[in-house]
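Hi R.,

Here's the chain you asked about this morning:
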Amino acid sequence: MTALVNNLFNQVDNSIYSNAMTFMRQPLSFDPLMSDADVVVLGLPFDMATSGRSGARMGPTAIRQASVNLAWETKKYPWTFSLFDHLRVVDAGDLVYSTGDADEFTLKVEDATTQLLNANKTILALGGDHFVTLPLLRAYKKKFGKMALIHFDAHTDTYNNGSRYDHGTMFYHAPNEGLIDKEHSIQIGIRTNYKSQNHGFKVIDAMQANDDSVEQIVQTIKQTIGDLPVYLTFDIDCLDPAFAPGTGTPVCGGLSSDKVLKILRALAGINLVGMDVVEVAPAYDSAEITALAAATIGVELLHLWTVKHKSPL
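And the predicted structure, written out as tokens:
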């Protein structure tokens, strides 16, 4: 009887909702620094910097839950290799901070990221509102120096609103702090107002992105970033609300999930060093389609990192 009971627990299987609270059913680790992981999934449940609808603090949980719909596929179509045969991933759960303390959160994100990078790991961060990218970039700068930024979004997030915590100001502060090189950075999917004069970033707005071919877009991205280390940040509102309604500041006229996935896959080979997916607000989602899109994008980013750093092809 004891043996039978023991067999009921501590098992990993292929049923869809087993181990559903970790990203892609990968192992949960509360000590990721001592793990053998190449990539640590870290949830950043923060939405105190939102200017629209709040709720992105629940994003990491929703993305993890949706990711189990992808976990059964040993090779993610159309990739030709099995991701987890080449890549070691652990899920470290969500960053813990004192409720309502944005200062503490910001410092803890930078500290945790710095420690993980110093342990020769990288992070797939799951937001949370887009402010979380700023402390992440501060940590990555310490290891990689100035980086190129690939930024998918409906908004440029380069607004100087005067607030220390605002999810529309990160890419005003990041170049001013020397974290990213604007001349080698690019924003895709923009469809809200910004000051184009002296903007500095290359922009492929949503209208152009919808009209241009994937090949044209990818060529422009690669020409812009050059050989610099790349941090890729994906705000889910880059997608049209038809594909991602569950976000705080949805804007019509965005990209389709199909086009975004094709662009990401065609970026294989870039020197990707860091990545995040942000702004999923599940309270406004429908049938988990936003969370599923975010989880799928996260998996694509893991493939991109693996292609560059593990050479599976």
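The radius of gyration is 19 Å.

Let me know if you need anything else.
M.
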